[in-house]
Amino acid sequence: MSSDIPVKILFLAADPSDASRLRLGQELRDIKERLRIAQVLGNYQLEQRESVRVGDITEAIFDFKPNIIHFSGHGTSQGELCFEDEVGKVQLVEPNALANLFKLLAKQVNCVVLNACYSELQAKAIAKHIQIVIGMNDAIGDQAAIAFAVGFYKALAANHSLAEAYEFGCVEIQLKGIPEHLKPVIYLKKN
User: Fold this and answer.
1) What is the tens place of the pLDDT at every residue in 111-169?
2) DSSP codes joined into one string, 103-167
3) Does the pLDDT value for residue 96 go beyond 80?
4) CATH no. for 7-188
5) What are the sequence ranges of the domains in the chain?
6) How much is the pTM?
């Protein structure tokens, strides 16, 4: 991922009030820390949006024009991602809806990280349009999700490829002694 042009990462977080609480602030803080050195060198720009409602998704993408989009939050066993509605309650988004959005963003976005439970169906649908998509094949605990993000962005900051960063994220879960290292899955766009 090394280049003279900074890689733009958009961190989207949703933690609806009627769902179990997540440590999204900790995940964001740890990602920022891992990218700090790379940011000093001008390689990465990180923008964040929290309490994300469905309408905020495209607005943030249009404002920032990211290369990598990282969603952190909840997912359902049916593959829906949980965003927030106008009063902070769960608003579900089906896999095909986000896949259609990313179809329109295929020239801009290189990677999507769905750090949410049961996001594999979303990842498969989005991977029809985006080069690399990472999702979770089951429920994943906060510690494992944060460990994955730390390993992933630590590797990116060290100039590893996106696919290698995925591997480092899985290994980071193992190094922490958390038995969830097989839950992150990666999908590559078929050309």
Assistant:
1) 999 999 999 999 999 999 999 999 999 999 989 999 999 999 989 888 899 999 999 99
2) HHTTTT--EEEEEETT-HHHHHHHTTTSSEEEEESS---HHHHHHHHHHHHHHHHTT--HHHHHH
3) yes
4) 3.40.50.1460
5) 7-188
6) 0.90
